[in-house]
Specification:
The complex is a heterotrimer of chains A (110), B (316) and C (278). Chain B is mostly helical and 316 residues long. Chain B has 13 helices and two strands; from the N terminus they run ααααααααααββααα. Classes of the chains: A alpha+beta (110), B mainly alpha (316), C mainly alpha (278). At the B-C interface, helix 2, helix 3, helix 4, helix 8 and helix 12 of B face helix 1, helix 2, helix 3, helix 7 and helix 10 of C.
Chain lengths: 110, 316, 278
């Protein structure tokens, strides 16, 4: 059976996908994951998940509209023109501007 | 949605450009599978010829290091087979079967057994050094999962070459008998090491396409030159004499080493590459017997409850 | 608990007892590791290969911890491992046994039998009066957990299918073959009394043996195996007294081969032709 392995570097980090192990059951998958994916750089925690348990949604699938297709400006800070703003609001807007820039870049590349 | 066409692939070819989300044309997927499979097979067969030297190691430090290196190489094989599987052409089980039954291709150097401790640094320093040189360039390969695996491999591999160099250094500062045998080992392996990167006039069957689609990023010739630039001085440092043939000469103007191609046996290389050379065939067979001997284990742990996984019987 | 011993001021008897205990500990780990590395690149799956390599490296590491303490008594690591005569090694004969190609059942069963004895022994050593051993036991115990889990997982997995089946037959064969040798793990050296009295290992081997039987017998029977009568090897080899099987001689010759070969000048090894009898 194939198990996808996810690593958490330090406490409170998210677990990140790092590869897989082939193992007959969860016990062995956990044992193998430690040696295959954490023997050099010990992780704080590892998840092993049977590959077939993972459900996927792909942006390319024909009936998927990841994030929505119709206009969504209402949820972007840049949509609102209200003059001066507190520092933390400025930060949030800057992040959204950056995200939008990334999104356009990725869309342009396709 | 149709797969990308080859022209687009060639136009876009660049470091880590393509991944599992891209619908790659079959020619690309086959070329990438071939390359990665060759690499994975080489890790396994390299590990296979080194493994007797865990027992042979003359100190606990060396035992641990050789065991760890062999372990790393199997781990690299695992990562690479996985990267190749993403291309949808072959499963890991199929590639392992092909390796066992003689269809799987791998690096020329690993077709020959290592006969003594004196020969070990030829593999662990020179050959692994050459492999590392190639791997460094593969960080820019166009198939992202391959590049990702390479990152991890490069992270682990540094110690392999340094350890290999340490073994070389130790033998080179041993008795005159040791140094004599070391030189003999070097002369035996030197032609094979020079041929490591393959034919340098790039008459290799698949080289052109792999370059065009960004899978391969450096020519065989350039790789060999870079390798010689780094490793010839090292050989000299440890008192090794570069044999007269195959003739290697430093061209100061071009700042590169010229190898007399006619001194290299490309016929034998070809046979070895096709797994037709008897020595290599014997290595493959020996490993095949070992793999066959544990087939019962793989069968014993197959989960045959209904509705579980559709991978082949060799899945564990 | 008995009074702590002072490593710098051991009586001659205590020194011999400490050496005896350390040698059996170290030799066990080293020889177990040697047979584990036989499995590298030959494991049933890539992952199994990595796991066994990990266990092997742990065992070499443990051996080193104990050989290190033996260095206090005058010999270097090289001398202890590569220059000690083969009949002065005191490991359990189970560790040295060769195995048939592909016999993964032997690997995991051997590991299981050993790892449980190891755990019991280390637990006893947690109460040692020899402080240097006390300092190191924790490290070894920590890693051995993985080894036991690994062996048990495999044994359970190999015993799941309806019988008769090949895996079960192989496990039974391995058990029959290994068991008498496993019992040599509990054979005393001539210093056993001193070891226990001085508290170097406060629990006698005979007690450890009983505990081991109590743990392993039900587990193995639960897998559908028939546990042999606990008799020592018929051939009379006992391991702890330096008597070993032929497999040990072969293994010893192999791992000393390169060491012997390196840094020698043939001129020194060869008889001066003028003085040869010919």
């Amino acid at each position: 059976m194939r198990w996808e392995v996810f690593r958490q570097e330090k406490k409170k980090d998210y677990h990140v996908h790092v590869g897989d192990v082939h193992a007959p059951n969860a016990e062995m998958a956990k044992q193998y994951a430690q040696v295959m994916h954490a023997r050099r750089k010990p992780a704080n925690s590892l998840w092993v998940v049977p590959k077939e348990s993972i459900e996927t949604v792909e942006a390319d699938d024909h009936d998927v509209a990841m994030g929505g297709l119709t206009q969504r400006e209402y949820r972007w800070a840049t949509n609102y023109n209200t003059g001066e703003m507190a520092e933390e609001i400025q930060e949030s807007e800057a992040e959204q501007v950056e995200a939008e820039r990334e999104r356009k870049k990725a869309a342009g590349d396709q | 949605m149709a797969p990308l066409d080859i022209a687009t692939v060639k136009a876009r070819a660049g470091p880590r450009e393509f991944g599992p989300g891209d619908d790659m044309p079959e020619e690309y997927r086959r070329a990438a599978t071939r390359m990665i499979q060759f690499h994975a097979n080489s890790e396994i067969m390299g590990a296979y010829i080194e493994r007797p030297y865990i027992r042979q190691a003359p100190s606990l430090d060396r035992k641990l290091a050789v065991s760890a290196q062999v372990q790393d190489e199997i781990g690299h094989g695992q990562l690479l087979y996985r990267a190749a599987e993403n291309l949808g052409i072959k499963t890991r089980e199929q590639m392992l079967d092909e390796l066992a039954n003689g269809e799987g291709k791998f690096l020329n150097c690993f077709h020959y057994p290592i006969n003594s401790w004196y020969e070990l640094p030829m593999i662990m320093f020179f050959v692994d050094g050459a492999a590392m040189r190639r791997q460094a360039t593969l960080k820019r390969t166009s198939w992202e999962p391959y590049a990702h695996a390479i990152d991890k491999i490069c992270f682990e591999e540094g110690f392999h070459i340094k350890h290999g160099e340490d073994i070389l250094r130790e033998i080179a500062s041993g008795s005159s008998h040791d140094r004599e045998l070391l030189q003999e080992a070097f002369e035996k392996w030197w032609p094979r090491i020079l041929q490591f990167f393959g034919p340098t006039n790039d008459q290799s069957v698949h080289g052109g396409f792999a370059m065009d689609v960004g899978l391969k990023t450096m020519t065989n010739d350039d790789l060999r030159t870079a390798f010689l630039n780094a490793y010839l001085p090292k050989a000299e440092k440890y008192g090794l004499e570069i044999p007269d043939t195959p003739h290697v000469e430093y061209d100061a103007e071009a700042d590169r080493y010229e190898v007399a191609e006619e001194d290299l046996d490309w016929e034998e290389f070809g046979e070895v590459a096709r797994n037709e050379d008897p020595t290599g065939a014997e290595q493959i067979n020996k490993r095949h017997r070992r793999q066959a001997a544990v087939e019962w284990v793989r069968e014993a742990i197959v989960d045959d409850s209904p509705g579980v996984g559709t991978t082949s019987a060799a899945a564990d | 608990m008995a009074e702590m011993l002072d490593p710098a001021a051991l009586s001659a008897d205590d020194a011999r007892a400490v050496v005896a205990e350390l040698e059996t500990l170290a030799d066990d780990e080293f020889v177990m590791a040697e047979r584990y590395i036989d499995w590298q690149v030959r494991g049933p799956t890539l992952e199994a290969d990595l796991a066994i390599a990990n266990i092997a490296q742990d065992e070499y590491g443990h051996a080193r911890l104990w050989y290190d303490l033996l260095e206090d008594f005058g010999r270097t690591e090289s001398e202890l491992i590569w220059e000690r005569p083969h009949d002065e090694f005191h490991h359990t004969t189970m560790a040295e046994l060769a195995f048939e190609r592909g016999d993964w059942a032997d690997c995991v069963l051997r590991s299981y039998l050993y790892d449980h004895s190891e755990r019991l022994r280390l637990e006893a050593l947690e109460e040692t009066t020899y402080p240097r051993i006390a300092d190191r036991v924790g490290k070894v115990v920590g890693e051995e957990h993985y080894h036991r889990d690994h062996a048990e997982n495999w044994l359970e997995r190999l015993s799941e299918k309806p019988r008769p089946n090949e895996a079960h037959t192989r496990l039974q064969d391995a058990l029959d073959r290994l068991y008498p040798h496993a019992l040599t793990m509990f054979e005393p050296t001539e210093h056993e009394e001193q070891i226990v009295e001085s508290g170097i290992r406060p629990v006698p081997l005979a007690d450890l043996r009983e505990d081991w039987l109590a743990i392993t017998t039900p587990f193995l029977e639960g897998l559908g195996l028939t546990v042999p009568v606990p008799d020592l090897p018929e051939s009379g080899v006992r391991g702890r007294d330096g008597t070993h099987t032929d497999d040990w001689r072969g293994l010893y010759n192999e791992f000393t081969y390169t060491y012997e070969m390196l840094d020698r000048d043939p001129a020194k090894l060869m008889v001066d032709p003028d003085e040869a009898g010919v």
